[in-house]
Amino acid sequence: MKSQFNLAQYPLWTALVTPFNDNGEIDFENLAQLVSEQQDANNGILLLGSTGEGLALTTTEQQTIVRFVCELSPNVPLMVAVGGINLPEQLAWLEFCNQQPIDALLLGSPLYAKPGLKGQIQWFDTLLNATELPCMLYNVPGRSAVALAPELLSALGHHKNLWALKEASGDISKFEVFRTSNPNVAIYSGDDALMPYFAQAGAKGLVSVAANAWPKQTAEFVRRSLSGTPNLFTTWSEAVNSLFEVANPVPVKVLMHQQGKLNTPNLRPPLTHHELESPAAILAANQKILSWN
């Protein structure tokens, strides 16, 4: 299937959280509300990323979430994460995704094994060959334990469906190296707080955690970042840093529960909302962001 959307028109993608009920099961009614809110803000939606606790869900649960959101037929594009360490399992997941009315894929770097350039090329080349959907690669060494080599983008340049890179290493200097490696690949910031700086360097948008709690405000922040409007950058950075006081998505789920967006702040083990000892910082951040004009 091919996307019905022009993905370049969506500079903000929300890495959607997965809501759970008191029994630790997926809260689908709540999930539908979250999708509706992102749709109202005209934000692209990423399902089953690390913010969505995708790797803590069973394959059946992952498939159910994708089918459920697809059946809602949101009028914004859907991207689905592909992540893990077992290549045959990832190919089976891609086979499932290829049959769904989704618009893009997020291909994560293989976890734990720390492959070098040749291993990375082999991994992504195999995944890109297994789908015709536009694909965004994901550089997140803080979670995968390996940084993507900049040369990877040029080595994979023959793939027409290599659409973008989500750069979440926290190192702005890496941006230009990646862009030089393959200028045709759109680069998105994977760090909310760094979006203004990535925008100045030529980023096309943001894949965001903060947009879960502040969908419209984050969309406005991205718009201002891309247009070079400096207003609110300091306020934003101070506020968004509170969402990473402990491991993501713990703080954002606690905040969304306080906001009434989530029925519970529950996460899947090994994460727990009890890790955040006080909600004071995120509540203060919430007040600042919601006071924007």
The stretches of 5 or more residues where confidence is low (pLDDT under 50) are none
Give average pLDDT, whole number: 93
Class by SSE composition: alpha/beta
Helix tally equals: 12
What is the CATH class name? Alpha Beta
| Overall helicity | 40-55%
Main beta sheet strand tally, sense and closure: 8 strands, parallel, barrel
Number of strands: 8
For the record, give the distance between the C-alpha atoms at the N and C termini, rounded to a whole number. 40 Å
CATH superfamily: Aldolase class I
Output the CATH topology: TIM Barrel
H/E element order: EHEHEHEHEHHEHEHEHHHH
The shape is globular
Taking Cα atoms only, what radius of gyration do you get, to the nearest Å?
Answer: 18 Å
CATH architecture field = Alpha-Beta Barrel
Strand fraction: 5-15%
- The side-by-side strand order for the widest beta sheet comes to 1-2-3-4-5-6-7-8
Number of domains: 1
